[in-house]
Amino acid sequence: MSVDFKGMNILITGASSGIGRQAAITYGKHNARVIALGRSQSALEMLDDDLARYNCDVINVPFNLMEFNLIKDMEEKLSERIDRLDILFLNAATFRGLTPVTHIDEKEWNETFAVNLTSNVILLKLFEPYLRKAKKSQVLVSTSDITNQKKPFWGLYSASKAALEQIVYSYAKEIQSTNIKVNLIDPGDVNTNLRLKAYPGEDKEKITQPSDLSEFFLDIVFNQNFANGELIKYVDWLKSTKLI
């Protein structure tokens, strides 16, 4: 697929590993300026090294999304480097483990909702003015089909993602007359550290690899086939491409 993101600013959360890292590499390869936000400084430096071969302009932002009081400071520092955002990819998530509902403690609850929900609301609030400055802009928000599976022990993670989905659907309606389009994306079962934590004995070769998602990431951005406020599933996209 021939796509050129030259001149575009793309902010990706959770960019230090897994799905977010692959998104950063994918868009960086196609000439975007990547603002890579992640918790691991060393992992972001490795990402920077990988993108250097494509002459990609990278802004690394080591950051813990649970530090709500510092998100505004982070945005103000970024404002010295960028004046707009073309794509905001809210991908970061945390998974505290499989826990019976009655065993969830307050710290687990607060950390999960802090990263998976609250930080995303704050980021939308702070970066919406940047999105409005672009001719057209796209928000992508990662979710999971676990919200529909009604599995035991997944209550905490599933609840945080279900709440995030409702925020996104509401936001999509609120901005439908603007230049911004927002979609949920479900990448499916992907070989990431988060998945390994939930399924340590799984054969990782039999599930989607982060690198498999590259064409998906390229195709869903600014694609008129997807309306504002849609849930875009990788498995459905893959089936549709095989039919062409």
What are the salient characteristics of this protein?
alpha/beta; 43% helix; 7-stranded parallel sheet; 244 residues; Rossmann fold
How would you characterize this protein structure?
The chain is of the alpha/beta class and 244 residues long. It has one domain: NAD(P)-binding Rossmann-like Domain (Rossmann fold, 3-Layer(aba) Sandwich), CATH 3.40.50. Strand 5, helix 5 and strand 6 form a beta-alpha-beta unit. Helix 3 packs parallel to helix 4. It starts with 8 loop residues before the first strand and ends with a helix.
Helix and strand topology:
Elements: E1 9-13, H1 18-29, E2 33-38, H2 41-52, E3 58-62, H3 68-78, E4 87-90, H4 106-132, E5 137-142, H5 155-174, E6 180-186, H6 193-198, H7 214-220, E7 231-233, H8 234-243
Parallel strand pairs: 1-2, 1-4, 2-3, 4-5, 5-6, 6-7
Distance between the termini: 14 Å
Secondary structure class reads alpha/beta
Hey, roughly how much beta strand do the residues contain? 5-15%
Q: Using the 3D structure, state the CATH architecture.
A: 3-Layer(aba) Sandwich
Choose one word for the global shape: globular
Proportion of helical residues: 40-55%
Helices and strands, in N-to-C order? EHEHEHEHEHEHHEH
- The average pLDDT value, as a whole number, equals 95
